[in-house]
Amino acid sequence: MAIKSRSSFDRVILVDALILICVGIIAISSASIMESMMKYGDSMFQMKKHLISVVMSVVLALIALTVQTDFYKKAAPYLFILAIVMMIMTCIFGREINGAKRWLSLGFMNAQPSEFLKLFWILYFSSFIAKRVKKLSDPFKKFLSDFSVIPALFIGTMLGLCYLQSDLGSATVILVITTAVLFAAGLGLNKMFVFGGIGAAVFALFVLPSDYRMKRITAFLDPWKDSQGSGYQLTQSLMAYGRGGLFGEGLGNSYQKLGYIPEAHTDFITAVIGEELGFIGVVILIALELILVYKAISIAFKILGNNVCFEGYVALGIGIWFSLQTFINVGAATAAIPTKGLTLPLVSYGGSSLMVCSIAVAILLRIDYQWKLGLIGDEKINGA
């Protein structure tokens, strides 16, 4: 790979991420008005909190942007352990909101450790696979005995902690990212069935023992059947999309945000955007998210094509993560898939999600920047 004398951070990724953050600020300022007024007596209360999160996210992203990718590779095990410790502390001392115990009070903010776990797992698992990628071509028995013991223990621990926190969404994201990285590393289809079986078992473990979760999973098939019960969120969300039509009711003119859609500024932010900006607005929003996904996966393929594993797997993991959360968030709000509480990257309200996604974008920018300068790859490996 030729080393360029000058390079810069990818402007498309940078501008796209900033636009998404700005869209989130505008959407949350509209969607949170009623809940902020009813709960806190200040229609801009949650908007102010979100702006603080935006400032913190930008600062953390700028710091992450200055860090060499080698640091992330070396620090990955420690960051992952930190995330596990935070998850355990959440199970013991965490705050319970809407029946889910996912938040850990840090005094100045409520952190959601599962958000940090996603990124730190991508870093750790990418480092782990990069060191052992050749073993993936070994016989199946060798794979089971030598390769899967350590990550299997970690995956089981993460899924168990997600189960204790009633967080099926994060468990799904972690499993899909893990599977995607393994597939990119050359894992055969026969071995992929093992992970498919694990995924099915986890899904059943989360859903079947709980009548509440079963109702949420099945409500999307016919939300109008129980429009005042299990299908309430979906019917209100669908009405918002219906009112929005093609071009929307106009910015700030959502009716469903006035106490009808629960969590309108988080899980159902796209419903409010759809009502105010219409189908066109939602399509543009999804396109902005997909630009980030496309850039991440294209960077991953380019780097992996040159046998640079760690940075390639990290870029791939970030791309899969963002694409899956976008799919689940929009799909749940449109009743295309069962309702599941996952934020829309860089847009939804939630300090932990915004911070972690901003750091992930910064890491992606750094990977691409170093690749362009020849600071990762053959030149670095060969000591050039």
From TrEMBL:
Q: What is this protein called?
A: Probable peptidoglycan glycosyltransferase FtsW
Query: Is Metal-binding among the key words of this record?
Result: no
Sorted UniProt keywords: Cell cycle, Cell division, Cell membrane, Cell shape, Cell wall biogenesis/degradation, Glycosyltransferase, Membrane, Peptidoglycan synthesis, Transferase, Transmembrane, Transmembrane helix
Q: What pathway is this protein said to act in by its record?
A: Cell wall biogenesis; peptidoglycan biosynthesis
Q: Name one Pfam family in it.
A: FTSW_RODA_SPOVE
| Cytoplasm recorded as keyword | no
Catalytic reaction list: [GlcNAc-(1->4)-Mur2Ac(oyl-L-Ala-gamma-D-Glu-L-Lys-D-Ala-D-Ala)](n)-di-trans,octa-cis-undecaprenyl diphosphate + beta-D-GlcNAc-(1->4)-Mur2Ac(oyl-L-Ala-gamma-D-Glu-L-Lys-D-Ala-D-Ala)-di-trans,octa-cis-undecaprenyl diphosphate = [GlcNAc-(1->4)-Mur2Ac(oyl-L-Ala-gamma-D-Glu-L-Lys-D-Ala-D-Ala)](n+1)-di-trans,octa-cis-undecaprenyl diphosphate + di-trans,octa-cis-undecaprenyl diphosphate + H(+)
Reading the lineage from the top rank, the first entry is Bacteria
Q: Where are the transmembrane segments?
A: 12-31, 51-68, 75-95, 143-162, 168-185, 192-210, 277-301, 313-337, 343-365
Coiled-coil zones: none
Q: Which family does the record assign?
A: Belongs to the SEDS family. FtsW subfamily.
Instruction: Indicate where this protein resides in the cell.
Output: Cell membrane
EC number(s) stated in the UniProt entry for this protein = 2.4.99.28
Question: How is the protein disposed in the membrane?
Answer: Multi-pass membrane protein
